[in-house]
Structures are given as C-alpha cells and as structure tokens.
Amino acid sequence: MKTSIATVSISGELPEKLQAIAAAGFDGVEIFENDFLTFGGTPQEVGAMVADHGLEITVFQPFRDFEALPEPQRQKAFDRAERKFDLMGELGTDLVLVCSNVSPLARGGVDRAAADFHELGERAAKRNIRVGYEALAWGRHISDHRDAWEIVRRADHPNIGLILDSFHTLSRKIDPESIRAIPGDKIFLVQLADAPLIDMDLLYWSRHFRNMPGEGDLPVVPFMRAVAATGYDGPLSLEIFNDQFRAGSPRAIANDGHRSLLYLMDEVARVEPQLAISVPAMPPRIEVNNIEFVEFTADEEDGEKLAKLLRTMGFRRAGKHRSKDVTLYTQGGIHLVINTEREGLAHSCFITHGTSAYAIGLRVSDARATLERASVLGAKMFEQAVGPGELKIPAIRGVGGGVLYFIDDKSELKDVWDLEFEAVGEQETAEDAGLTGVDHLAQTMNYEEMLTWLLFYRSIFATEKSPMVDVPDPSGLVRSQVIENASGSLRLTLNGAENRRTLAGHFIAETFGSSVQHVAFSSSDVVNSAEQMQSAGFSVLEITPNYYDDLEARFDLDPEFLATLKSLNILYDKDDHGEYLQFYSTNFGEGFFIEVVERRGGYRGFGAANAPFRIAAQKRSIRRPSMPSI
After folding, report:
1. What is the rounded distance in angstroms from the CA atom of residue 628 to the CA atom of residue 213?
2. Which pTM does this prediction carry?
C-alpha cells in the first residue's frame, strides 16, 4: 500500500510541507495547484525537491470546469488542459485530477461529457499523461461517483479513469457498495477523508471540517472495503480541508495522517481478510482490562501533602520502592504511586508541570503486543535506565509528554508490585472508604490537540468515541469527547480548551501543557464513601443549594434521599439506563481535582448535565481556597 497526502492538508510553505510529509513516512504527495503557484521556484525545482525527499507526485490537482461546455468555452478548456499538461511534464507527474464541472455554463449530458473526455484522453496519451475524473458532491450535473464512472466508461479511453473521494461519496449518503462494480484498473486514485456529521452546505462542510479517517463519523471503513474489493492497488491519499489543521504543526498533522491510513487499512483487512490488502503487520487493537495505576510526580513537600490527602480518602501506604523515592498507596483495586525522585522523567515533569499525574499504567491483554502495535502506528517509545531488580516495563509517550505503561498477566510484569516494592506497615492504617477502582481519567488539552489524541487512543486500543459535547464554563466553552471500551474498563474524557479563562484553559496555562486534570474513582456506595472521607478531613467541593432545588424539580427524588445528597455535596444524574452519583474535591494547585462516582444500573455517561455546576463551584473555590496547594 502506497500512502500519499495532499499539500492542502497541512500548514506551512511548500518546502516545509514536503519535509513534514516525508518525515511522517508517506510515499507520495498530491501537489495542490495553489501551493505550487505561491511557491517561488520553477516546476523543475518543485519536482526535484519532491524527489530529494524520497517522494513521488501522486497527482497534480485540481483542473476545474472542463467537461460539457459550449463553444467557445469548450475550446478554451482544452487549451487550458494543454498548458496543464506542459506543467505536469516539468513537474514530473503523469496524473491530473479533473473535478466535475460546477460552472453555470455547463450543459450536462453523459454522452457529451464522455466525448470531451475521450478527446482529452487522446491528447493526454501523446504526453503519457493519465486523467482522473472525480465527482464533486456539489457538481452542477455530476455529483455522484456512479455517474462519473458512467462517463469514464463511455469515454472508453485507457488514459481516462476514475478518482474516488470518500467525502464526496459518503457526505451524500451514497451506498459505497456500488463501488464494487467498478474495475480496479479504471480507478486511478483513491482520496480519503472523514468528517463529523454536521447538517450544513456540502461545499462549506467539505472545505472546513474534513478530518483524518477515524477522527470523524463517516463510514470510511465500508467505503475502503468496497474499494479494496475492486482489486485497486494504487495509492491511498488524504485530501483534508480543515481550518484547524491549516493552523497546526505540519509535522504533527502529517504524523496523524500517516497513522490514520495505517489504522484504516488494518481495520479493513481484519473485517475482510480475503481481500489482498497490503498493510504493515501489527497485532489487533489492544484490549484494556483496567487502569492499573496512576503515578504522580512531586517534590518531598508536595508529596507529603498528597499522601495526607490520600489518607483522607481511605488509601493506605502499602509499599516503598526498593531503590527509588517512590511510594505506593492502595485501596480496593486501585494503585496510586507518588514519585519524588530528583532525576529521570518524573522529575523533569515536576519541573515543567509541578505536582501532576504524569504516568498511567494500563493492564492489557499483551504488553509486548501493545508496544508493537503502537510502534507501527508511529507512537513514540519511552525507555529510561532500569536499576537492579527492576522490571523493564513497556511504555510509550502520551498526552502532554507523559507516559503510558503496559502491564499484563502473561509475563513477570504481573508481579510488578511484589518485585519492585517492599511492603510497609502503616502506623495508623487508614479506614477503607469503599473505593474500588479508577472509573475514568480526564485529560485536558488545547482544543487543537483533541483529534490527535482521539486518533492515538482509537488506533491503538479497542475503544470507540462518543459524540463531542460542549461543556459550558462561565468564561467560555470546553469541548469534551469520551473514549471508552465496550466493558467500561477504560474510560477517558478528552477536554479541549479554547481560551485560558475557562477552568480547563487555566489549568493548561498554569501547568504548562496538557495533562491529567482529574482522576475519578469508582465507589460501591458513594454516600458511605462521602461520609467516611469527609469525616476523615477530605475537603469536598461545595455545591449551591439552588442546584438541589432544581434537582428536586427535575427528578422528583425522595426528600430524604435528596437531603442526604445535599448534606454531602453529592451531584446526581439519571438516564433511561440508570443513575449516576458523584462528588468532587476542592481544587489543588492550578486546577487538578478528584472525583468519586457510583454508577447504578446501566448508566454509561459522565454526569455532563452537572458539569456547569461543578465548574462554577470550582471557580468559587479557587477564589477562596480551602485546601493547601499540592
């Protein structure tokens, strides 16, 4: 499988784009005409620059408003085509994309268009050039790949073929199964793009909101399965028009693009293994059994403050690392680690971000397979010096430069807590507060990063995404997207901040980058947990009485139950499947906090309706802090 991406998909000047595309591992590049026209060099210099990066020009595009024109516009269109053929010869490419006519002068008619393309094919053949015809979703007469294919079929010329674009097909809800009837050798190029489902004008949707396969909501996998069934073995090329991408890092967007193509083709090959699809070998998406641990970095002073907080939550000091300043705290199935080392990544993260949850450990089906899949998909590997008696735990870099560690039950990694930690006895054993596990982690980032990390998690782990929601903050909106697996053993909320005045934006600005902003622990009985923790000195986030008045009106709760919720500052939500109870700590430092939740019945949400009340309470808490900063 050869991979390609259009220059229009990423930001920067043409040399910068080509450098990023090559570094990401692409084989080819689509030269978008505007990128060429705004570059100061000659066509020959562009062609040489592409070759110097080890790339080939997949296609030159677009050539607009060609077919089915009246005279004299028809002759002028052929003259324009000849000049484009001259330019292509100098660039060193043999394929041009002709998109369906949108001119009001276009007359339409399949036979008229086919005749024009036959003549264009004759002219192209003299230059050893191929012409690919693409149906624009908003084309004046041709807006469906089936009609475009009929024109190509009737043109009946070896130098005339079809170009398929997933957005143009799927945005119009055309059944991609119709592609299977097209001979693979008549498909000259396949362009791929995903997009969120938005009800808007097709042209505006296409020009501003496309994204990488796997980041949106279009059925790109069925589309690609149909393409593969034709026997097509040419390049797969990304053509992404997205305002966010055009303002982002060329290197990061190019890396995302390459990852998305590998992920897409791996998914296609696993659904229909009988199709001859060339894709790098990798294990299937990884099953996550649970969040095994969360590791905090701190200095000695903040580490002790954090330890005191954990004791109010019912955690007990269970182990001391055999060779490092690292302490283990446990409760139920939860492992929390406080790292106060003065060297290594943990210390670097402390210097940069302050006290923070910089590392996450996931218990997976196969740790080595996880590392292998992540490596193929371009994740950054993480290794640091291993001391005597320590395990080398497979790991990759994650959000904000943090680390994801992988533990499994099929190797010595299963004994990591016994092998690396010495058991310690508490002088005053904390009383268990009924916390059983990590329900979810909330990672806060700049909004521009959200699609990158969405694709990162979805491509490596067996997870799916929920629709993005807007969370109101008194100072703006925060975009939130949930990623979780079918069993609920891995739940992540990605929260994108667009300005620093929101609580999420303040957290990013003050801690110098994306990170875990809160950890939510599951409880078997949240009322009991709240009573136990608050009696031990846990500083709970205070919710206004107005919230509980509204709660009574919305859900008609039992008065005694409502009074209990109010007295303990527990928030409540309910859907058709079950109930959700949650309470929060006050803010620590510049916005890190803790949540405790209880899920009753089949509730799968995260209490989104309560978020505005929680955020408002947290902002009040920041103005009058009630707990020492960690």
Report:
1. 45
2. 0.93
